[in-house]
C-alpha cells in the first residue's frame, strides 16, 4: 500500500486564465503566507516569469545555490561510495526521474545492432547519470522549499512527530 506524501501546504499556488490574462494566487502553509496576487497580460509574460514562480518562495539565485550545493554533495558521496541525505521525491520530479532511470536501464541492456540497416530509436543526447543528478538537485531544492513552508513542524521526512 502506498502512503501519500504529506505536505505542509494548506492551499496550493493556483495559476488560472481568463481570456488572455493569467492570474497567479500563491499558496499558504504554516510558515508561508501567500505573496500578493500577480496578473500576467499574456502567455509570454507568464512564461518569462515561470522560473521565479517555480522557485517561490525562495529566489531564483537561492534555488540555484541549493541545487549547486546538492550536485557537489551527491558527486562527492558517489565518488567516495558514501551516503548523502535523501528526501521524498514529489511530482513532477518523480516521473521525470523514473523516465530517466528507465532510459538508463534500456541503454545498459541495449545490444549492438545486428545489421547496418536495422533501425532503432536514437539515443538521447548527453550523459544520463549526470542528467539524473541535476534533476535530483531540482527535487532537493523543492524539498527544501517545502520544509521551509512547513516551519518548525516540518523536516525532510515530513511532519515532525512529537
Descriptive notes:
Helices cover 44% and strands 10% of the residues. The model has no long low-confidence stretch (mean pLDDT 88). It has five helices and five strands. By secondary structure, it is mostly helical.
Q: Report the principal-axis shape.
A: globular
- Gyration radius (Cα, Å) is 20 Å
Helix content: 40-55%
Task: Report mean pLDDT, rounded to a whole number.
Answer: 88
Class inferred from helices and paired strands:
mainly alpha
TL;DR of this structure?
The protein has 162 residues and is mainly alpha-helical. It is built from five helices and five strands. The longest helix is centred in the C-terminal third of the chain and has 23 residues.
Write the layout of secondary structure elements.
Elements: E1 14-18, E2 21-25, E3 38-40, H1 43-48, H2 50-55, H3 60-79, H4 93-108, H5 128-150, E4 154-155, E5 158-159
Antiparallel strand pairs: 1-2, 2-3, 4-5
Helix pairs in contact: 3-5, 4-5
List keywords for this structure.
162 residues, mainly alpha, three-stranded antiparallel beta sheet, two-stranded antiparallel sheet, 5 helices, globular
